[in-house]
Structures are given as C-alpha cells and as structure tokens.
Automatic annotation (TrEMBL):
Entry-linked Gene3D superfamilies: 3.40.50.12660
GO biological process, one term: proteolysis
Ranges in coiled-coil conformation: none
UniProt GO MF annotations: cysteine-type endopeptidase activity
Superkingdom assignment: Eukaryota
UniProt source species: Paspalum notatum var. saurae
Entries under Pfam families matching the protein: Peptidase_C14
Residue ranges constituting the Peptidase C14 caspase domain according to the UniProt record: 65-335
GO cellular component: cytoplasm
Protein name: Peptidase C14 caspase domain-containing protein
InterPro entries: Metacaspase, Pept_C14_caspase
C-alpha cells in the first residue's frame, strides 16, 4: 500500500497534514486525530471485513413502527475547533425529546425504539460506528408493506472528497460516530446502501438529521428547493455515474438542515446548547400543526420556528441553540411528490 506519499503496509497519509493513519478493516474513510481532516480510503487500499450478524440486543422488537435515535455529545473527545474535553450538550436531550414525540404523538412502541447515546453503560447502546451500523441494519431488516421507520441523528457531520463520481458537488457527506477518530465517519454511500436501498413497496423511512454537512446525507435522488416565497421545485440529484440511489419500491424522506457556509455557527458548533435547533424546530412544528399535516406546511412551520428563535430560545426548560450550524430545513426524497398535498404520516 502506497498512498499520499507512501507509508507502511496498512497505513495511508492524511491528505491535510500527512500524518500516518492506520487503515481500519471495512472502513471507507478515516478521520485524523491530529487535524480532524477526513481522508477517503481508496478502493485498492481498503481492507475487507465480514460484517457480523445483528446481535440479540437488536433483535427483540420487530413492530411495524420502529426507530433508531442517535445522540452523541463527544464528551472528553477533541472536536474540530474545540479544546480537549469539550462536548455538545444538545444531542442526548434531542434523542429523549424525539422518543417522547414518536411514542406519544405517533404511537411507536417504546420497545421498538433503539436509543444510542454516549451516556449509556450498555456497550451495545453506545453510538460507536459498529453499533450505529447494526442499528441501521436492524431498522430496515425484513421491512414490509405498512412499516413506518424513523432514523434520527444528532451530532457532528463531515464532508469527504468523492471518489466515484456520484456526487453533484464533488463531496460525500457523513455522520461522525463516537469513535470516528478510530473507525472513521459513516459515509452517505453506506447509509444509502444500508437504509434506503432495502425499502420495499409500502415501507416508509423518515430520517431527521441534526448535524453539520447533513443536507443530503442519505444520498437520495431528489432534492426539494423551497423559495422563501413558497415556490418549490424538485431538483434531480441522481449521480452522473448512473449509480442507483433509490429504494426497492418504498419511500425514503430526509429532513435535514441547510447552511450556505456563511453562518457563524457553520465551523464552530455551539457546545452550550441543551437542545438542537434543528430537532427543536421539527418537534415543535409537528406539535403545533394538525395531525396529517403536509410536508409543505411542516417545512414552513420549521422555517418560522428557526427564524423567530434565531437558533436560540427555550423549549420545555431546555436551552435551544444551533450546535449544527443549520439555517433552514432541507427536504430530499427517493421520489418526487407535491409537498403541499402529500401528508406526512409516521
């Protein structure tokens, strides 16, 4: 193996600082602990890994309403632009509030909601790369007509230079697990492959992602552009390479955050938020809108909540702040539809 200036077998060089990084079996990218830069591992340099079967803790509950909720504070870990020991305060509260919303508003059974947070003692409930992957497999495994699936992530995101021509902007997006410096981030290519592609006809997946660089983190083929005037239009995001990014007949929707990169929050997430602005706007919009509201009304309500609160404020005695740097909600989908006529059903 001889990548980015060379190195011993099983290592690559960080593209930013040239530090030697060990290649982790099964990983597609690795995050440098020295400079935080994410380097993609070339196909020729990847070490294959047989993925283990989903362990028993993830196999017990199989209702037709299932959810995976992930919140990572990164307590004690060095973050980009922050000193050692700094942590986000919002993600764990995001997960708790989202669980309450799903169980109380949408009737999700508590035993069918998996929470991965970095304050738990059960090693299978820590948001490590392996556990997140197993939880994603659990969520969609054996999905069938009528299933309503929810994936929620609150934490940090990353961008990685694309190497297979399937990104319009030349960058893959990724979510950062708790052990991102050891295992690397989880790329949108993998998230799409694991959670989007297996969705069969009649199965629905809603993903709500509160993280920087998360606008299209499910790699869905269509992005909805909504102007402040209310005019909306679907934009074709299917990759130039021709790679399939759709489902197997089901429907996947991502509600994430958009940032133009000019926000003061974009590169320095707010560590003092006890509830994320993106998650807060989604929960409050769902609660204030009537049941069966359309996606268009939901986005309008979320935008108003984020604008009026300017990324701050309080909710249920929790301080709301914009730790993910998003400026307005973003919608992408596996198929195009009329956002002002289609109801959001979970």
């Amino acid at each position: 193996m001889n990548t980015f200036g060379g190195g011993p077998a099983g290592t690559i060089r960080c593209k930013y600082c040239s530090a030697s990084l060990a290649v982790i079996p099964g990983e597609r990218a690795i995050q440098c602990a020295h400079c935080n830069f994410v380097t993609r591992i070339r196909r020729a340099d990847r070490i294959p890994l047989h993925r283990p079967q989903v362990p028993m803790p993830f196999q017990r509950a199989r209702g037709n309403k299932r959810a995976v909720l992930i919140g990572i504070t990164y307590a004690g870990l060095r973050r980009c632009g922050a000193g050692a020991g700094s942590a986000l305060r919002g993600p764990i509260n995001d997960v708790k509030c989202m669980r309450n919303l799903l169980c109380q508003r949408f009737g999700f059974p508590g035993e069918c909601v998996i929470m991965l947070t970095d304050d738990q003692r059960d090693p299978f409930r820590l948001p490590t790369a392996d556990n997140i992957r197993m939880a994603m497999h659990w969520l969609v495994q054996g999905c069938s007509y009528g299933d309503s699936l929810v994936f929620h992530f609150s934490g940090l995101g990353a961008q990685v230079a694309d190497d297979d021509g399937d990104e319009m902007d030349g960058y893959d997006e990724a979510i950062c697990p708790l052990d991102s410096f050891q295992k690397g981030p989880i790329l949108d290519d993998e998230i799409n492959e694991v959670m989007v592609r297996p969705l069969v006809y009649g199965a629905r997946l809603h993903a709500i992602v509160d993280a920087c660089y998360s606008a299209t983190v499910l790699d869905l083929p269509f992005l909805c552009r909504v102007a402040r005037s209310g005019y909306w239009q679907w934009e074709d995001q299917r990759p130039p390479s021709g790679a399939c990014k759709g489902t197997s007949g089901g429907h996947a929707v991502l509600i994430s955050g958009y940032s133009d990169g000019k926000s003061s929050f974009a590169m320095m997430p707010d560590a003092y938020a006890s509830l994320g602005a993106m998650t807060n706007s989604f929960i409050r919009a769902v609660e204030c809108e009537p049941r069966g509201t359309t996606y268009g009304r939901l986005l309008t309500s979320m935008r108003a909540i984020m604008k009026n609160g300017a990324g701050g404020g309080c909710y249920n005695d929790l301080t709301v702040a914009n730790f993910s740097g998003v400026q307005e909600p973003n919608l992408s989908s596996s198929e195009m539809f009329d956002i002002h006529r289609t109801k959001m059903i979970m």
